[in-house]
Amino acid sequence: MTGLLTLCLLLAADIGSLAAGYLTVTTEPLPPVVIGDTVTLKCNFQTDGSLREIVWFRVNTQVIEGGTAKQKIFTYDAMYNTNISHTEDHRQQKALVYQSTVRLPEVQMDDDGHYECHVGIYDKASQDKVVLASGSITLTVIAPPKSISVVAADSPAPFSRYEAQNFTLVCIVTGGKPAPMVYFKRDGELIEAVPSAQSSVTIGGDLSNVPGLGKNQGRHQAGLRSSQQLSSRDLDDTKLQRSLSLLEHEAKPARLGQHSPEEEQKGKKEIESDPAGPTTEVIPETVVSREFPRWVQSTDPLYYFQHRQQVASDGTMEVRAMLTWSLNPQLDNEALFSCEVKHPALSMPMQAEVTLSAPRGPKLSMSPSKAKVGDTIRIAVQGFQNEVFPEPLFTWTMVGGPLLDGREEHNGRELILERAPAELNGSMFRCTAQNPLGSSDTHTRLIVFENPRLKKGKEQFLATDAACRHKSLGLTSVLLLLTITSGLT
What we know:
Blueprint: H1 2-20, E1 23-27, E2 33-34, E3 39-47, E4 50-64, E5 67-77, E6 87-90, E7 95-104, E8 113-122, E9 130-139, E10 141-142, E11 147-152, E12 165-176, E13 181-186, E14 189-190, E15 194-195, H2 217-225, H3 240-251, H4 261-273, E16 304-311, E17 317-327, H5 329-332, E18 336-342, E19 350-355, E20 363-367, E21 377-383, E22 393-398, E23 410-411, E24 414-417, E25 428-435, E26 438-445, H6 452-488
Parallel strand pairs: 2-10, 15-16
Antiparallel strand pairs: 1-3, 3-7, 4-5, 4-8, 6-7, 8-9, 11-12, 12-17, 13-14, 13-18, 16-17, 18-19, 20-21, 21-24, 22-23, 22-25, 25-26
């Protein structure tokens, strides 16, 4: 009896549910859409009831008064529309399958976000009651990078022939979403760089306190020390044998008298056991180079890679990728470095290239071309015999003395000599252009001509002064005459 009652209740529930009708809503997920493309949002729903309305909302990320802000973008009201498009009638299932679509042409970054499809049907049991269901779609808008450029950090910078310098290339990529993948190449070959754990790591010096380097720490230090050690190849090509001699002494410290304690004890015992032997230890002669200090790099430098990114106001990303290594002018001069970017919105990688080069022969221009005494003379760097990267540092000096304003040197692309005096005629000026790869000097001799205007003004001044002198003498004579006359009367 109890089982029969339960069965009756279940049948009544099923009949009630059929009378009330049913509604299921599903949405089709979207792959990322490239900015500027057209996208169609699709919402599928199945019901055996009568359609009441379809409403599409765009869900804003901002929260207003504890709730999520929604913007209505499309509404379909069945009371005022008798024709329903995209409808399939499945009579065998006694239900209708609908599909509502919203087309967004030329999507922009502002279209990125969540969308909801709300569907309402009339309840079969009561036509005044509406049954609601909804589904959501996430639209992801991606954008390819707008620009890519490669610059040198800490530029302009001087050249040093006495010590190795660390050099950093910075690849700046803007306008992409999501953040692109950035990598460097040298002469077309991918550079295997050591990633840096911290964006603020200073490459060079002791890296023992830098966190995150782990098992590569010893390799890092060895790579940095290699920039200050001589190798079997003397890249200066001057006095190769002497450099090799220094290297051989460095590789064998025993020849320089740097014995270990065991070797020294063994030597003492041999000397004591051999009475005919020498009483003092003979230390080999050490050859000391008197040349200026040189440094020779390894042909396989160690590269370090850093990556920083930040979100722009429009939702896109700005990425700065930095490649740092110990620069070797003999090997890195004329080397081609490229920064390449991969992004899902790009069909092929985007790249920017630079060729490292030392400045050679800066060309100078002078204005005015025929300078006169009292003119303001400008001597400027007009260009180079070759393309120069990174940006050079320009230093101006005058041979044999200070500049016109008393300074020893002036930095900049232009040297200005205000109200040039005649004493500058024949003076020699030197412009030194240098970057971390090398330096170059250019000399120019300044010719200052006489200024007729100044000469004419001087003559007029002398004539006026002479006239004043004559008038003064005439007045003195008259006064003297009056004095004499008054004395006689």
